[in-house]
Specification:
- The complex is a heterodimer of chains A (610) and B (262).
- Chain A has a 9-stranded mixed beta barrel. A 7-stranded mixed beta sheet of chain A has the order 12-13-14-15-16-17-18. A 6-stranded mixed beta sheet of chain A has the order 19-20-21-22-23-24.
- In chain A, a hairpin with a 2-residue loop joins strand 5 and strand 6.
- Chain A is of the alpha+beta class and 610 residues long.
- The N and C termini of chain A lie far apart (95 Å).
- About 4% of the residues of chain A have low confidence.
- The longest helix of chain A is centred in the C-terminal third of the chain and has 23 residues.
- Chain A contains 15 helices and 24 strands.
- With 262 residues, chain B is of the alpha+beta class.
- Chain B has 5 helices and 13 strands.
- In chain B, strands 1-2-3-4-5-8-11-12-13 form a 9-stranded mixed barrel. Chain B has a two-stranded antiparallel ribbon with strand order 6-7. In chain B, strands 9-10 form a two-stranded antiparallel ribbon.
- The longest helix of chain B has 23 residues.
- Classes of the chains: A alpha+beta (610), B alpha+beta (262).
């Protein structure tokens, strides 16, 4: 008898004895098994709120903040005609509150059989979802968001508890009630035999005033529903629709708000939602209908007072280090020194877009060396603002451009010395303006400038296009498109952290900004607004088409509000007092620092008056 | 071979001892009375809770109009009864509590106060409607025919996998699984309403509930109640709903109010 035979017999005896004398049930150390097919049960609970439903003006029972309510009150269903809105995905947890079904399966290590992840495939509008069970950490705040978000889970007895971050902006209800991209979600999957209770708690510092708990019911389905795709392709629904048109309602002018109220005999105060509506005491507030109606009318417009402070997470680590985030293809995003820096690596040399604020340039150069064994050959500036050119001189000095050291160029003493610095001509003009103190040393000034609409390069085997975006945040903005990697670097035209810094004195304008955002959207491709063309913003997290879409929509909506007041002859102070950006301030605004909400609104107003 | 026999024999002995300890605990010790339901509770439900009215909001927070039965699988007979709903008639008959019975009470916007009535009975009181439910882990008391009927309770630890209430590790130490569920089956109800606008349930209704407790990262504690109502007289299929309650620090907003029919 071999040792292995003996070991097998030993294990068999142990197992048999345990089953014979134990409880007759093997303890499932991980908790419960959710694998299989699950379906919403007959849509009994919240049947009127399911996918693609949700009556306009029905926000009751959701603890929305003022921003959440005002955002919903501005929402027009016509927005769904825009190409970028036609195939949007569903976020966690909304996807569990619509009709449909889910497939759940486990991913285990093939050798150890340790549970690595639980996977979920919803019927509609969300790619496969992964719930990591192996204890890994969540990504940094500057990583991209997805519809499903990034989820980690653990079993707590008969409950699978899941924590999710990095979720795109989505919806609480399909009637404009939005869940912001700052939301995090805790979910509990509670199995009771053949049924499962789904309990989620959303924490959204922007659009909620307090956590939003909600339940749903699923039942186990024995057979494969065999329908796991929902085709969608955006098309031209309104031929000739201008790109800068995003239908929205001015506050106080929602034409359908009363329909829900009248049809279901619901007091408007309740229909408008808010934290008080989820508590039993709210019923008593409705007893005095006159007082309730008066209170409701006050909630159709922003409350007077200062703008809401920004409640979004700052994605910048602020730790004095440079963080490298692989984007896709050969392109990387460097975070930590003011504006984001993009790096394309390859055999010919690194191509860098923007140089940051210049406070951590040595670390930037060191970080670039970790992803490129070739020197920096090109540095492109997307604007002249100091948080994008501050490191120019050091990056220039650290680089070399072999192409500039050939032919007749050799007659110049500095031919090929240092990286070649590119930008639109107006960037050089702004930096070198007569009489002004130059923001950076002359060594870092752009010397290879362009004036036409497009500058192109074939670098590292990749087509790279630099597009001029006139009068966006300045008169010298460029975006850079790495075509094979499918990455667009936007500079300050798109920031995920703040309103765009429209520098009216430097030629910026809200019209140019909207046009530039639409130009970016003309170049992006995605599947259900997920993946595809990746966007490196001037500031903030890695993004894609959806975030630019939401930003464009915001700019158009705020422009429309300001323009409407200008048309009525409102002076700037009146526009500021009207808080025309009240639904966005908690996400993008600021009441202090170099770029406040008031400065932004003034820039919009001023450029529209020009 | 001789060494193997010795080896296998030792293994069998170890296995028997291990299995015995795992399955029976302190075999050979003085028999102990079975632990009470209170002692076996996998989690603490006692205290004050407030309902989070975030599901079916317009049917729960506001009395829906007559004829609005969306989501309830009522049959034709039930519909004809509901269409004749007359709250004034209920008031005149002293039946204002028809929508506060066990088949709907957990959906009523309310605060709960949960205590142990005794070691085998959990008591749940509501401020709205001032109802009292008794969940009997032992022999139920009473004959039923009341708004809250007769509720039989049990602890379930495994959600369908049949884990024992207690088990013992290989050292004989008692191990209590995490999580757990309280299952409550309620029968012998006085006929009432599934919603305030007169959707009926009959005395034949069977209400099955699961009570689960979860704790959020911010420290909030929720009680999640999952309910199925089966009524051969008025429902064409089981009616499934779920509701959450958040734990309260104290009785600060406890406000007993009588039933209302409107």
């Amino acid at each position: 008898m071999t040792r292995s035979h003996a070991a097998c017999i030993f294990l068999t005896i142990v197992a048999a004895a345990t089953l014979a004398f134990g409880q007759g049930q093997a303890y499932h150390p991980l908790g419960i098994d959710l694998a299989g097919y699950w379906s919403q049960f007959a849509r009994q609970q919240d049947v009127g709120l399911g996918t693609a439903a949700g009556e306009l003006g029905d926000y009751g029972g959701v603890p929305i903040s003022e921003a959440g309510r005002l955002s919903a009150l501005a929402w027009s269903a016509s927005r769904l005609t825009l190409p970028q809105h036609q195939c949007v995905g569903y976020v966690t947890p909304y996807v569990f509150y619509g009709p449909g079904y889910f497939r759940v399966w486990e991913e285990r290590d093939p050798q150890t059989q340790e549970l690595i992840a639980i996977k979920m495939r919803p019927y509609a509008a969300m790619p496969d979802r992964t719930i990591w069970m192996d204890g890994r950490s969540h990504p940094p705040a500057y990583a991209q968001h997805t519809w499903a978000g990034f989820s980690t889970g653990k079993y707590e007895g008969n409950i699978l508890t899941v924590y999710t971050t990095h979720i795109k902006k989505g919806q609480f209800r399909a009637n404009g009630l939005a869940q912001s991209d700052q939301a995090t979600v805790v979910e509990h999957f509670i199995r009771h035999g053949e049924r499962m209770t789904y309990f989620s708690v959303v924490n959204d510092p922007v659009n909620l005033d307090e956590p939003f708990p909600k339940t749903s019911n699923l039942v186990h389905v024995p057979n494969d529903p065999n329908s796991w795709t929902m085709p969608c392709d955006d098309g031209e629904i309104i031929p000739g629709q201008p790109k800068d048109r995003v239908d929205n309602y001015l506050w106080g002018q929602h034409p359908f708000l009363q329909e829900f109220v009248d049809r279901h005999k619901v007091p408007l105060l309740g229909a408008l939602g808010g934290p008080e509506t989820i508590y039993p005491e709210f019923a008593a507030k409705l007893a005095d209908s006159n007082a309730a109606d008066a209170a409701a009318k006050n909630r159709l417009i922003p409350a007077p007072g200062p703008s809401q402070p920004n409640r979004a997470v700052d994605p910048d680590p602020h730790d004095g280090e440079i963080h490298v985030l692989p984007v896709q293809g050969n392109v990387y995003m460097l975070v930590g020194d003011g504006g984001n820096i993009a790096v394309q690596a390859g055999n010919e040399g690194a191509m860098v877009v923007d140089s940051g604020a210049g406070r951590l340039s040595d670390k930037v150069i060191a970080a670039i060396r970790t992803i490129s064994n070739k020197p920096i050959q090109f540095v492109i500036n997307t604007s002249f603002h100091p948080d994008h050119i501050g490191g120019n001189a050091k990056l220039h000095a650290a680089g070399v451009d072999p192409e500039a050291n050939g032919g007749n160029l050799r007659t110049f003493a500095d031919a090929g010395v240092g990286a070649t610095m590119l930008s639109h001509l107006n960037v050089l003009k702004r930096i070198s303006a007569a009489g002004a103190v130059a923001p950076i040393p002359a060594e870092g000034w752009p010397t290879d400038t362009y004036t036409q609409g497009r500058r192109r390069k074939l670098h590292n085997g990749e087509a790279v296009e630099i597009f001029y975006q006139p009068n966006a945040t300045t008169d010298g903005n460029s975006i850079v498109h790495f075509r094979r990697s499918d990455v667009i670097v936007t500079g300050d035209i798109f920031n995920s952290t703040s309103y765009p810094f429209i520098d009216v004195r430097a030629g910026g304008s809200v019209r140019g900004e909207i046009a530039a955002l639409n130009n970016i959207l003309d170049k992006t491709v995605s599947w259900r607004q997920e993946g595809g063309t990746m966007i490196i913003p001037g500031h903030g997290r890695l993004s894609n088409e959806w975030e630019v879409t939401e930003y464009r929509d915001m700019m158009v909506i705020i422009r429309d509000r300001v323009q409407a007041m200008i048309n009525k002859g409102a002076p700037l102070q009146q526009v500021l007092a009207a808080k025309v950006s009240a639904d966005y301030d908690a996400r993008f605004g600021s009441n202090s620092g170099p770029w406040t909400t008031a400065m932004f609104i003034e820039a919009v107003y001023t450029s529209l008056k020009q | 071979m001789g060494r193997f026999v010795l080896f296998a024999g030792t293994a069998l002995t170890v296995a028997l001892v291990t299995a015995g300890a795992y399955g029976q605990g302190t075999r050979g010790a003085v028999p102990q009375p079975p632990p009470t339901a209170k002692a076996r509770a996998p989690f603490d439900m006692t205290g004050y809770w407030v309902s989070m009215v975030t599901e079916d909001w317009r049917f729960r927070m506001i009395t829906p109009p007559k004829g609005d039965y969306l989501g309830v699988p009522l049959n034709q007979e039930a519909r004809s009864i509901a269409d004749r709903w007359d709250p004034a008639k209920d008031e005149a008959a002293g039946e204002q509590c028809k929508s506060y019975g066990a088949a709907n009470i957990m959906r009523v916007p309310a605060r709960l106060h949960i205590t142990w009535e005794n070691d085998q009975t959990l008591k749940l009181e509501t401020d709205a409607g001032m109802q009292t439910r008794l969940f009997y882990f032992g022999t139920p008391q009473g004959q039923g025919g009341t708004w809250q009927g007769i509720s039989k309770a049990s602890w379930e630890f495994d959600a369908g996998f049949g884990l024992p209430a207690e088990r013992f590790d290989r050292f004989g130490t008692q191990v209590r699984p995490q999580g757990g569920t309280m299952k409550v089956v309620t029968t012998r109800l006085r006929p009432g309403y599934l919603r305030k606008n007169g959707i009926p349930y009959s005395a034949e209704a069977l209400v099955t509930e699961y009570f689960d407790r979860v704790t959020e990262p911010n420290g909030d504690v929720y009680l999640v109640v999952t309910m199925t109502v089966e009524d051969p007289m008025y429902l064409s299929q089981p009616y499934m709903t779920s509701t959450s309650f958040r734990k309260q620090a104290d009785a600060a907003r406890w406000n007993p109010t009588p039933c209302t029919s409107r």
